Type II secretion system protein G
Amino acid sequence: MMEPRRHGGFTLIELMVTLTILALLASVAVPITRITATRSREAELQRSLAQIRSALDQYKVAADAGHISKSIDDSGYPASLFVLAEGVVDAKDPAGERLYFLRRVPRDPMCACPELRNEETWGVRSYASSADDPQEGRDVFDVYSRSPSAGLDSRPYRDW
């Protein structure tokens, strides 16, 4: 007696179950990917803020030590973020060597404005303004992100 010939392949139900499982896995993977990308940008924001703030503090120390010329009513902080990378002439060096505080000003990773230069992506606070209402002025005492968004911990990026 001859057995009927079996054709290899999948049934419609097997294909539907497989597609359902794939769709479920994709719906879980997309949010995880977004959270990972946001977490990475937040870590970059923290590094950039720390780097710029450290450079501002180093500039202030150099100004207070007499390496940077300033007037009596100056705070000792740079006039712009660009100065940190451009460098300033060392007032104590007879050869006129320059002091550099940053290789380049990092870009705010939360800024979605490609037309802006790196130093323009940051909000700056002058020494004379309050922390609650940061305003630009004659110098740069601190920096903050201009992004209106909040981080994964619900704190606005502006307050970091």
User: Anything to note?
Assistant: The first strand starts at residue 88 and ends at 89. The chain is about 35% helix and 10% strand. The radius of gyration is 27 Å.
